[in-house]
From TrEMBL:
The lineage of its organism: Bacteria, Pseudomonadati, Pseudomonadota, Alphaproteobacteria, Rhodobacterales. Residues 3-224 form the Carboxyltransferase domain. Keywords: ATP-binding, Hydrolase, Nucleotide-binding. It comes from the Bacteria. This is Allophanate hydrolase subunit 1. Transmembrane segments: none annotated. SUPFAM superfamilies: Cyclophilin-like, PH0987 N-terminal domain-like. One of its GO terms (molecular function) is ATP binding. The keyword Hydrolase applies.
Length: 291
């Protein structure tokens, strides 16, 4: 793992902890970006974290670009020595897999897909070695996921599967992006799952849809009144498969202001997770079941 520092014009420094995603890289990036923030370096105006990287925006009239980069580099050793531990929360996200809305959309864009003859789930199951879509869906929802970044569009979470690397699902994006994706689509691209917070263009494979809004700029939804964005980096997600009746019931609760996401406070310890992934995940899900 070798950190790469590059300039982004005259006002940005981009810090990439590693060229591939891992939880080790995420935690180092998180620690380093926090140390930069706590250092109160004159001229820093914004720090934007990503999956295993972050970008610092600064005023070059206050601090020169080379000095800015040097100040960040000075903190790298301390960041690598930080404990990879986080007080966070595990959240249950209901998912209506194989729903009619994403199905209608994906069928409109088959000419942009690797396999026009089937659905996104058919393709994902086949290339990951599963005998059926049902078996692939079970692999998608059976273990928890780690929110490594929020962004790209407002409120969209990138989720990294908490399993051994050789067991992680991998599915490429569409050959050419769609011009339409239903709001709250549960998508997949590379090693990341996501939830499309708003309707719009997209290239991730579409697996289903959640009835639980995750972004509300008007802050009218009951659980988004304090902040318009639901997710934050470090959150842990457990997908819960639901059917159409459950989808409609939750949608009604959201509209009435009575829906409350199922959440439990937990600690994520990367060393403990790496020592026993199955056992650690079981404890996370037990905490959620007890909530």
């Amino acid at each position: 793992m070798k950190t790469r520092y590059t300039y982004g014009g005259d006002e940005h420094v981009y810090v990439e902890v590693d060229d591939e995603m891992s939880l080790d890289a995420f935690f180092i990036g998180l620690s380093l970006s926090r140390l930069v923030r706590e250092a109160n370096i004159p001229g820093v105006t914004e720090i934007c974290p990503a999956n295993a990287s972050f970008e610092v925006r600064f005023d070059p009239d206050v601090i020169a670009p080379d000095e800015m980069m040097a100040r960040i580099k000075e903190l790298e050793g301390e960041a690598q020595a930080q404990e990879k531990r986080l007080d966070t929360r595990i959240i249950e996200i209901p998912v209506f897999y194989e729903d009619p809305w994403t199905h209608e959309t994906l069928m409109r864009f088959r000419e942009r897909h690797q396999d026009p003859s089937g659905t996104d789930l058919d393709y994902a199951a086949r290339i990951n070695g599963y005998d059926s879509v049902a078996a692939f869906i079970e692999a998608h929802h059976s273990q928890p996921w780690f929110v490594s970044m929020v962004g790209f569009v407002s409120g969209l979470p990138f989720l990294y599967q908490l399993v051994e690397r050789e067991k992680q699902l991998e599915v490429p994006k569409y050959l050419r992006p769609r011009t339409d994706t239903p709001k709250l689509t549960v998508g997949y691209g590379g090693c990341f799952s996501c939830i499309y917070s708003v309707r719009g263009a997209g290239g991730y494979q579409m697996f289903g849809i959640t009835p639980m809004p995750i972004f509300d700029p008007e802050q009218k939804i009951s659980y988004l009144k304090d902040f318009m964005v639901f997710f934050r980096p470090g959150d842990i997600v457990k997908w819960k498969p639901i059917d159409r009746a459950e989808y409609d019931a939750i949608t009604k609760q959201v509209e009435e202001g009575t829906y409350a996401p199922k959440i439990a406070e937990v600690e994520f310890d990367l060393d403990a997770f790496n020592k026993d992934m199955t056992g650690f995940n079981a404890k996370l899900m037990e905490a959620l079941n007890d909530a």
